[in-house]
Amino acid sequence: KHFVGVISVALTVFAAVTSSCNPQGDFNLPVFMTSGDFTIGGIFPLHYRVELPPTDYIKRPLAAQCQWFDPRAFRWALTMTLAVEEINNRKDLLPNHTLAYSIFDSCATPVTAQKAVLSVLNGQDVVQSVICSGASTLLGLIGESGSSQSIVVSRTLEPFRIPMISYFSTCSCLSDRKQFPTFFRVVPNDDYQVKAIAQLLKRFDWTWVGVVTEDHDYGRFALQGLKREIENTDICLAYHEMIPKDYTQEQVLKILKVMKESSAKVVVVFSGEGEFYPFLREFVTQNITGIQWIASEAWVTASILAETYPFLDGTIGFAIRQGHIPGLLNYLKTVTPERYPSNPQVQELWEALYGCSPSTSSLKSHLPSCTGKETLRQEHSAYMNTSSPRVTYNVYKAVYAFAHSLHNLIHCKPGNGPFENFSCANLNNVFPWQLQHYLQEISFSVSGENVNFDVKGDSIPSYDLINWQRHANGDIQFVKVGLYDGAQQTGRELLIVEQAIMWSHQQNKVPVSVCSNSCTPGFRKAVRRGQPLCCFDCIPCDIGKISNQTDCLSCPEDYWSNVNGTICVPKVVEFLSHDAMGITLTLIAVVGAFLTVTVLVIFLYNRGTPIVRVNNSELSFFILMSLTLCFLCALVFIGEPTSWSCMLRHTAFSITFSLCISCILGKTLVVLAAFTATRPGNNIMKWLGPTQQRIIIFCCTLVQVVICTAWLTISPPFPYRNTKYQQSKIILDCSVGSDLAFWCVLGYIGLLACVCFFLAFLARKLPGNFNAAKYITFSMLIFCAVWLAFVPAYVSSPGKFTTAVEIFAILASSFALLFCLFTPKCYIILLKPEKNTKQHLMGKFTK
């Protein structure tokens, strides 16, 4: 008995199952639907958002409610129906075949979009179907607007290998053919949009920007792309905020607080208009001013936002290319509640446009009633704006892409087909993957634009730069002020007509958005610790550097910074010129030479007197002439050094001083020999006659000449620009060339002076009223002291003072020799002529 009861129950259940197919929950019905040979689906965000019902886990939750009807998206859906009707009426495209469509509402959320695509796949008569095993003949799908929705829809379609063409999903993630092998789109991916926005920020020097994104894949990938594009630039993100998926006032107020407190005046928004609209409602309540909005293509042409929120005037952003759709405006006017009395979306359109509920409406509404026959006017721009269709045009292109693919599939010639064994598709049973093959290879023209897809399913990247401008009558217009062409060479993609742009608050001046103002000339950036690179302090450049407002650059070697650190100016070239110091030394040298010549004239005039003739007057004349040359060679050291002057000054100085000291050495030997010769049997004077004296002078001088010749041959002195000793100046001096040769020259002169000093010192106490050895000893002592003091002074003196020290040593030693050797004689010749006798000089006179 029990067994019979079980069998009875089972049969009852089976009978119930086979008699009807009952859905397990609420089922989406198409917004628009037709029948035909080939069916394509369409999914559009006809509502902004979804309100999720409360869940207490006790009873089954209610279905999610779509809220805030979007007339703009409704226009997109109607464009699909218009395009299908156009194609079905054409004779040259899909002849003898018709397209059918089934359009659903995604409510701009991924969950509802997935529900919609499952509805498309299940077929149109699932509720009335006797069995539930039947599936629709869907060959392709047009959708979705949001990238997150498209990701869900594409992954749902992928197991069935059904191709999908998106008209507004721009996320770069969708170009991954491994994850989305059946996805195509007629809109550029966001990799190009973020490149365009980054170039826009650079163009107007907006280095401190805020970013607001929707909390979906579109916003996340767009943010990643923008960060990648500005990574090595001067642009920094002041903040990044996400509009929450589940809209709450508290979270939005937190975002608005960040925006209000930030100094960033340029805000980039990656969001759909549905997500952005409620955010802006809260923005109005806050006292936030001076924002320059940068719109993504998702809302840059959203008329409803432009009309509702005047503070968005001046918004600038990149929009997808516009095109021409013939007959669209008239077609939109035919969609009325009177023609579609049972379509709830048409009823909602009337409520959105007129704020009234049509008499034919079955919706419960608290709005005043109207006839539903009202005339659509141009001011309903969110719905009626067909002057520059962009997303609408993409929908139009997507429908034609499917139509041309089907056309090529239908006209496949057996034996030349693309499939196995060169076969073609069976027109009675076309598979979606076969249509995808033709879709990948498609190339056609619509409204003068060539449409095709690359290997990733993307289309040609191109944008119009749009500016929101409000006219005096209050009308808002989307004015094209530039374009971005991704096919151009790097750096030439962006073209902007700046004078055509109207910025926020009706300003013609480009807004400024920086964390720190640019450093003035002469200052450089110093990054603040813990803050982005765009936030910095300005500190003066070091001496010798100039600023390019970013960093301090060292001037070239021969240049130095000016006082303000703004430009490099030629360094001051310093050398011992005819300035005050040079003129003073020149006068001293000339005076010394004049005094020497004067003494020479006196000696020539009195050459017959004993005081001149004593100790060989010829040597005295040689000494005076060489001293004259010593004074004059100091003049060679004054003035700009040249190759010839450098070689001349050192060789002339060394040879003339060697000649002078050699003559003094000869005189010392004569004095020493003269007094020694008075001793009996001493015959030394015959070895120091005039000829021998000349030979001694010649040989001593010749040694110095040989040294100088070798010096000039091997490594001669040359002009040297010293930029190391004093960075702000170029010290132009003569480099000695060979240090060894230079110190050999000085050493040889020192050697002659020491020998002369030693011999004169030995003869200093010889008898006679005029013992020249005493004066020679004293002159050599001063000479050696001067040159010993010269060495450390020469090494340590900077710049032109090195040359001045050398001139001073030459003049001081020359004056020492002149005064010590010849002043006593001139005194006797000029003032004490009575002592100018042989007896007086020999000390043999009587008082």
From TrEMBL:
Belongs to the G-protein coupled receptor 3 family. GO terms for cellular component: plasma membrane. Residues 1-19 form the signal peptide. The keyword Ribonucleoprotein does not apply. Its main location: membrane. One of its GO terms (molecular function) is G protein-coupled receptor activity. The chain crosses the membrane at residues 580-605, 617-639, 651-675, 695-714, 740-763, 775-795, 807-830. This is G-protein coupled receptors family 3 profile domain-containing protein. Residues 581-845 form the G-protein coupled receptors family 3 profile domain. The gene is LOC122140390. It comes from Cyprinus carpio. It comes from the Eukaryota. The keyword Signal applies. Gene3D superfamilies: 3.40.50.2300, GPCR, family 3, nine cysteines domain.
